Amino acid sequence: MAQLFDISKVTVGPRNLEAVVSVSPSAPLMTSEDPEGTELVLGIMPGLADHMCLGDASSSFGEVVADTELAHLLEHVTVELLAQTDAAGDVTSGQTVEIGERTYEITLACPDDVLVAGALSSAAWILQWAYSGGGEPEPDVEAIASGLVSLVESLDEPLDEAPEQDAPLDEAPLDEAPYEGETMVSEFVDAAYEPILEDEPEPVSAPEPAPEPEPVPAPAPEPEDVAEPEEAPEPAVPADDPEPAPADPEPAEEPDPVDDDPWGMKDVPRPHLVR
Q1: pLDDT (tens digit per residue) in 75-103
Q2: Would you list the domain boundaries of the chain?
Q3: Where are the alpha helices (DSSP H) in the chain?
Q4: CA distance 123 to 80
């Protein structure tokens, strides 16, 4: 069989420990689905029958153990382990609440987080053995409880004292220098840290800085000279322009007209043709 339980989350509060536990899909969800496994658990932990149970139809867990959730049985096995350690105080029961499909939240009183978390893990291993057919070796409940107590006591033991350190180098004799030919210079180092005696001159204080000169106002900027307009350059004559055409020749003087009206008939009106 695969792992019976998956403890996915553990939260330790000031008084309680809360664990989110999922039951494997291949495992029985109720104790009645595997009565042989339930009998194996009761065989090695008969004190379960005397547990109080406030959440079921009966106040005795022995009357409901044959048909209850496997997570509910995990809660009571954990409480029984804590009771056998004699180190958990008055832990008599816990609480199991279904919070999802095949998922439960188990709440246990927590006098010591290591002790309770170890008991819950051991209880899951016991149920894994019982609902996987049993077999050898059979869980030794007393040995498990004793191992839980030893685990807590080992964590409470103080740490061993640190070993003494070797003497510092400046206190070691010269013949125990770590390297041959090494010169001890601790006395010079100590002299450098001796206090200043009263008859020694006091240290000269630094001179006070000279006052900074007052800033001189900058002269007003002179007006810029107005640039005179430049004369427009004459247009350049292209070098390849054709030569200007020659001027027309002056007209020759006309000869005096010949008098073709010797009779004075030039100013006489002439007849007009009428149509």
Answers
A1: 999 999 999 988 666 665 689 999 999 99
A2: 5-155
A3: 35-44, 70-85, 113-130, 141-156, 186-192
A4: 9
